[in-house]
Design brief:
Strand order of the largest sheet of chain A: 2-1-3-4-6-5-8-7
CATH class of the largest domain in chain B: Alpha Beta
Radius of gyration of chain A: 19 Å
CATH architecture of chain A: 3-Layer(aba) Sandwich
Strand content of chain A: 15-25%
Structural class of chain A: alpha/beta
CATH architecture of the largest domain in chain B: 3-Layer(aba) Sandwich
Number of helices of chain A: 13
Order of helices and strands of chain A: HHEHEHEHHEHEHEHHEHHEH
Structural class of chain B: alpha/beta
Oligomer: heterodimer
Largest interface: A-B, 37 and 43 residues
Distance between the termini of chain B: 42 Å
Number of strands of chain B: 16
Helix content of chain B: 25-40%
Low-confidence stretches of chain A: none
Bound molecules: thiamine diphosphate, iron/sulfur cluster, magnesium ion
Radius of gyration of chain B: 21 Å
Number of helices of chain B: 13
CATH topology of the largest domain in chain B: Rossmann fold
CATH superfamily of chain A: Thiamin diphosphate (ThDP)-binding fold, Pyr/PP domains
Number of domains of chain A: 1
Strand content of chain B: 15-25%
């Protein structure tokens, strides 16, 4: 058995519930590899999720894990982190969970710059409920609630987080798994709010309806479409068509929320 | 709880008494969003919590406020969220979550006029049924309602104690009158206050986060970060805390949740019987309205009318056994409440034909006066 699976997963809770070819398992695997690379203490990690296929990941992970209500993972996680700043708090969320029903919590967690690492499993669809469009579904894509093609314009979650004030924001895909692992590892070391958007395929609720071919065709698509942000910026405008940037969008240091709160407590102690 | 002579006397509003009680109960975390007439609860928490090493956070909305408070409670901190009207509506989904996941939490609702934005600065008691049925699905509820500033202090402590003891959210249903009214209160000595803390496990091996042993009312609750590495979910779950679709298991879980309250009524139920010994008429009331009911009874007694009060201190669970008993010896049960008929429905369910049921209610932002109560009863003579 894979050493990471043995060490970090609740083996009695496997097999997992994801469909064959679902990208979510790859992301979970890269998260535990990043945790292992950093040698983090299992007893001190808390993984929080909302509702969705992606949000089932914490159930398989052998840490303190909290499966909350749809969209609210970051709000619960904020309470945990502020109440116990020594814990490493990780949020796992789907694109719908993080950017639709939980979109407000996302931008406010970024703004506060609270020390939480969020991994968004972005399959550009509501997987769990059978393929309704999400805030990241591309315009013209088909979804069960966009039967004539979506007229909605999508969010770019990594850029949204960067603009909202997060210390760290990055994007990768399940095709670029090693790169994804490296970005998660980097995010986990940030003292402040960090977000990694992980593009993930949902063959069942997205791929089939949009005629994206086999799972390997979908992976091949990631390889063709996603290019490093620096390479992207060097491309002439007409060649950027159909390409999407990946890599680190932002890496800056700002005051961290729980540390700032601790300063108030210390100051009040001094006043006595 | 005895009060000693040399205790601390203060002249404060109900919302302040609530925070004083909370702090004495061991309150360490507030998550919420400001809304009239509960805002002082947030403001005072912001001032006081960091002084005792606690944490205050103003979240982006009420949903996030209760979510943060639940998260904090999971780390072992006594937590509270406070709100009014519209905010209480927003919190409902996560109130159900806290019930299902058995997270201790105090939710204060300083009631104001509704529906919708309604009457932000006027009192009401229009959320009593929402307290019971606001979140979806069957679930146990404990909701307390104080009639004075002093009682707000003690009831807040009791709310924390019940939350910790039964591992569930407990609601403190006050109203704009009680929240903003100033009265003299006596703060008891610390050693005279009973404080209950959740029972924590001391054995990691074989820890069942949702399993109860013989004689236990609730499962032992480990704090996140203490190395128990367990799972918490709002899905129906088994003793290990992991989701389970089995109907048998769902039934076992829900029965246990409901029985936390149903099998401990002696411990949870609280009410006051005022001049009921020889009463021919019961006035059933609670919260701010009970003050008018008390004045109405005094007035009627002077006129020779034998009226007394049955005052709810726990609205949920409803003290139905005692009310049924009392109703057998009286002519009328008059329900006075600041709404268009909520707890009176419970009274009708319980009293049935034992006595005539009268109703005195309003929901226009005005409090019910003693005269209105007296008149409602006299119409029967
Ligand atoms: C308040 C609420 N609204 C709606 C739902 C139904 N629901 C469950 S998961 C989901 C969408 C999940 O999509 P996403 O977050 O992208 O996760 P995925 O399943 O794609 O991984 C929805 C709408 C719910 N559980 N709760
Ligand atoms: S429906 Fe889609 S997202 Fe959900 S498990 Fe299946 S493939 Fe994955
Ligand atoms: Mg999705």
């Amino acid at each position: 058995m894979n050493k990471y699976v043995k060490k970090y997963l609740r083996n009695d809770k496997l097999a997992h519930m994801w469909c064959p070819g679902c990208g979510h398992g790859i992301i979970m695997h890269q998260i535990i590899k990043a945790i292992d690379n950093l040698g983090l203490d299992k007893d001190n990690i808390c993984v929080v999720s909302g509702i969705g296929c992606s949000s089932r990941a914490p159930g398989y992970m052998d840490f303190d894990t909290l499966h909350t209500t749809h969209g609210r993972a970051l709000a619960f996680a904020t309470g945990i982190k502020l109440a116990n700043p020594d814990m490493k708090v990780i949020v796992v969320s789907g694109d719908g969970d993080a950017s639709a029903i939980g979109g407000n919590h996302l931008i406010h967690a970024c703004r506060r710059n609270i020390d939480i690492t969020t991994i968004v499993f972005n399959n550009t669809i509501y997987g769990m409920t059978g393929g309704q469009f999400s805030p990241t579904t591309a315009t013209n894509d088909l979804a069960s609630t966009a039967p004539y093609g979506s007229i909605d314009r999508p969010f770019d979650i990594a850029k949204l987080a960067a603009a909202a004030g997060a210390s760290y924001s990055a994007r990768s895909t399940v095709y670029h798994a090693n790169n994804l692992e490296k970005l998660i590892e980097e995010a986990l070391q940030v003292k402040g709010f960090s977000l990694v958007e992980a593009m993930s395929m949902c063959p069942t609720s997205y791929g089939r309806r949009n005629k994206k071919g086999t799972v390997s065709d979908m992976l091949e698509d990631y390889k063709e479409t996603y290019i490093n942000i620096n390479a992207f910026n060097k491309l002439p405008l007409e060649k950027r068509e159909g390409k999407i940037e990946m890599g680190v969008f932002k890496n800056e240091t700002y005051p961290e929320y729980t540390a700032e709160y601790q300063k108030i407590i210390d100051r009040l102690k001094g006043d006595k | 709880m005895k009060m000693k002579m040399k205790s601390n006397v203060q002249f404060v509003q109900g919302n302040k008494a609530c925070i004083l009680g909370a702090l004495d109960a061991g309150y360490k975390f507030y998550g919420g969003y400001p809304i009239t007439p509960s805002t002082e609860l947030a403001e005072l928490s912001a001032v006081e919590l960091p002084k005792v090493g606690g944490k205050f956070i103003q979240m982006e909305d009420e949903i996030a406020g209760i979510a943060a408070a639940i998260g904090a409670s999971l780390t072992g901190k006594k937590s509270m969220t406070a709100t009014s009207g519209p905010g209480f509506s927003l919190k409902q989904e996560n109130i159900g979550y806290a019930m299902m996941a058995e997270i201790p939490l105090v939710i204060v609702n300083v009631q104001r006029g509704g529906p919708s934005t309604g009457l932000p600065t006027s009192p009401a008691q229009g959320d009593m049924m929402q307290a019971k049925w606001g979140t979806h699905g069957d679930h146990p509820v404990i909701a307390l309602t104080p009639e004075s500033v002093q009682e707000t202090y003690y009831m807040t402590i009791r709310a924390f104690n019940l939350a910790e003891k039964y591992r569930m959210p407990v609601m403190l249903m006050t109203d704009e009158v009680i929240g903003h009214m100033r009265e003299k209160i006596v703060i008891p000595n610390k050693e005279d206050i009973e404080i209950i803390d959740r029972v924590q496990p001391n054995e990691k091996e074989g820890y069942l986060p949702y399993g109860v042993k013989d004689g236990e009312t609730v499962p032992k609750m480990a704090s996140f970060g203490d190395g128990y590495r367990y799972h918490v979910t709002g899905l129906a779950h088994d003793e290990t805390g992991f989701p389970s679709n089995s109907n048998e298991n769902a039934k076992r879980l829900l029965d246990r949740l409901m029985n936390k309250v149903n099998h401990n009524l002696d411990d949870i139920l609280d009410y006051e019987e005022y001049m009921l010994e020889d009463a021919e008429h019961i006035v059933l009331s609670y919260g701010a309205t009970a003050r008018s009911a008390r004045a109405a009874i005094k007035q009627m007694r002077q006129e020779g009318i034998k009226a007394g009060m049955f005052r709810l201190k726990t609205v949920w669970p409803f003290p139905e056994e005692r009310l049924l008993e009392l109703s057998k010896n009286v002519k009328n049960v008059l329900v006075a409440e600041m709404n268009l008929g909520q707890m009176v429905l419970e009274v009708e369910r319980v009293v049935k034909d034992n006595a005539k049921i009268l109703f005195c209610g309003r929901a226009d932002g005005e409090i019910i006066t003693p005269e209105e109560i007296v008149e409602t009863l006299k119409e029967e003579f």
